Amino acid sequence: MVSPSVTVIVPAKDAGDYIGTTLETLTRQFDDRRALKLVAIDDGSRDGTGEIMRTFAARFDHAEVIVNPAPRGLATARNQGLAHVEGDAFCFLDGDDWMQPGRLPVLIRALHDLGCDFVRTDHVTVKRSERRLVRAPFTHRGVVADPREGILPLDDRSMVDYPYAWAGLLHRRLIDRGLAGFSDGLFTAEDRPWIWRLHLSAASFAVVDAPHLLYRRGLSDSLSKTLDARQLHFTRALGEVLDLVEADRDAERMLPKAVFTVLALSSHHLVRARRMRPALRRELRRGIRDLLARLPHDQAEAAIARLSGPRRRVLARVLREAR
Question: What is the pLDDT of residue 224?
Answer without folding.
Answer: 46
